[in-house]
Each structure stands twice: as C-alpha cells, then as structure tokens.
Amino acid sequence: MCEQPRPPLPLARNLESARRARRLTLREVARRVGRCWRSIHNWESGAVEPSLAMVLRLADVYRVRAERLLFEPSADFRASFGGDAHAD
C-alpha cells in the first residue's frame, strides 16, 4: 500500500509564495540565508520545517513579517503582493 503524499503545510506554501512574489530562485534564497537550495526546496515542499531562527531570516529576505509566513493563509498572502505570486 502506497502512502499518499501529504499536502504542503501553510508555512511551506507561504515560503514558496513569498519567494516567487519576490521573483527569487531557490539558489538565490539559499545564498542569502547560507543554506543549499535543497534545504529551501524541502521547506517549501513541507518535507522539513525550518527553525524559527531561519523563518526570521527568510522573512527578512522576503521583506515580510515572520507572522505572515507562519500564520497567514497562502491565498491571502499572495493577494497581498498585488497579484499571482506564482507567476514567474
């Protein structure tokens, strides 16, 4: 029996939305926070959660409050950037 993949957590969706809204690549974010791009990918997919200290660093990179990354529904988060945050 195969296990169904779990949907991304709100934090994971918000991290990806914020990165895309700022038009940053995984590698650019990784360089700015001192991690490899796979770490960023794992956080965005929900496979692993970043530490609170890293959430604060990411919020700084994305120029948002950490609370928005942690708690705001992703649809509201994307809309607050004035458009579709998934457009590249």
Q: How would you describe this structure in keywords?
A:
single chain, 88 residues, mainly alpha, 434 Repressor (Amino-terminal Domain), 6 helices
Tally of DSSP helical segments: 6
Biggest β-sheet description? none
Strand content: under 5%
Order of helical and strand elements: HHHHHH
Task: Give the domain tally.
Answer: 1
Shape: globular
Q: What is the CATH topology assignment?
A: 434 Repressor (Amino-terminal Domain)
> Looking at the chains present, what oligomeric state does this protein adopt?
single chain
Unreliable sequence segments: 83-88
> N-to-C terminal Cα separation, in Å?
37 Å
> How many strand elements?
0
CATH superfamily: lambda repressor-like DNA-binding domains
Mean pLDDT: 84
Radius of gyration (Å) = 13 Å
Question: Could you explain how this protein is built, in words?
Answer:
The protein is mainly α and 88 residues long. Helix content is 59%, strand content 0%. The chain has helices at 10-21, 26-33, 37-45, 52-62, 66-71, 74-79. The protein has a single domain (10-79), classed as lambda repressor-like DNA-binding domains (434 Repressor (Amino-terminal Domain), Orthogonal Bundle), CATH 1.10.260. Helix 2 (26-33) packs across helix 3.
Question: What's this model, at a glance?
Answer:
By secondary structure, the protein is mostly helical. The protein has six helices and no strands.
